[in-house]
Amino acid sequence: MNAFSVSDVTQHLTEGTVLLDDTLTLALPDLTITVKTNSSTLLAELQTYFANWVTAETCKNNIDILAIESPEPELPITWQDWQREPGKEGRKDAWFDLQGGRLIRKVRTGMVFLQSQGTRIAAGPCEANPNQVINFINNQYMTALQQGDWLICHAAALTNGEQAIAFAGFSGGGKSTSMLHLLSEPGLAFLSNDRLFLKAGKGQVIARGVPKLPRINPGTIVNNSHLFSLLTDDAHNHYLSMDKDALWQLEEKYDTDIEACFGKNKISNQGSLSHFIVLKWSHKDTSPTRIERVKIADKLELLDAIMKPSGPFYQRKDGSFLTDVEKPNPELYLNLLQDIEVIEVSGGVDFKALSAFCLTLTR
């Protein structure tokens, strides 16, 4: 099938599909994204999830996506596993390059995605895996940003309407928890949970998030009263009874509706980056939390927490794709962050102390 083209695969994935008349269009900075599907169940799910970004109009720069509810697509190709980042275990993505495009398969669910410059399709059990469709939609926005020279970061962020604060940390470091602890404060709004994009502007570094709501673990929920509604009382009590270290490491994801938990006007698309906080603290450290302003050029190891590979879905402007051995370029991050105040947080974990410090930065 390596001689097959994007149009051949499109025909294979969409054959016999009858699309709904209703569509979903999202308004994002500089573009709109329109999703067409054959599933009313999926459409309703996406409309609820993306409620804060829904629009009735498309702009000139519009991206079309097809989301096809179907059995797992069967394709006569030999998939290659996408090598995961260090510390990540298990098979997740497999890929196959076509003439002018790439197929990506989610190993656990059988969902298949066609990524190309003109055609973008999610096919398979979409209704059972709406989060993978949501991620695919966001991947189109992330591709557009990177094609526009925005730099991808592995970070959460919030904004006070003008300035933005970003939080990075190694896996399980607490970046989402830190951001969510601050969202209850008046005037602060959610910008991003896990992917942040930066670009130099006129005398500033602009930060943009993506319309992806936080997916958080129980350890985050039980330590923030605004999130208690995500758990039943029995589940809440169960998690509180767990060993602290075990709870910290527990991976059980819960979707967080920001406005349901924190109120209206709590989501933003953009801000001017003022501070980048990197979390190196540890629950196993019994010393007080230490908060120190550093120069990123003197702390190059912090870049490992900030940098993020673009992944298998990213397609360059010339139509080519990345391989799984290509790594982010540290020099790009150093140049962009050289005038940004970088703050290293080490010692023991104390979210209240960090929140109090961050509030001094937002006033």
From TrEMBL:
Listed InterPro entries: HprK-rel_B, P-loop_NTPase
Gene source species: Enterovibrio coralii
Domain of life: Bacteria
Name of the protein described by the UniProt record: HprK-related kinase B
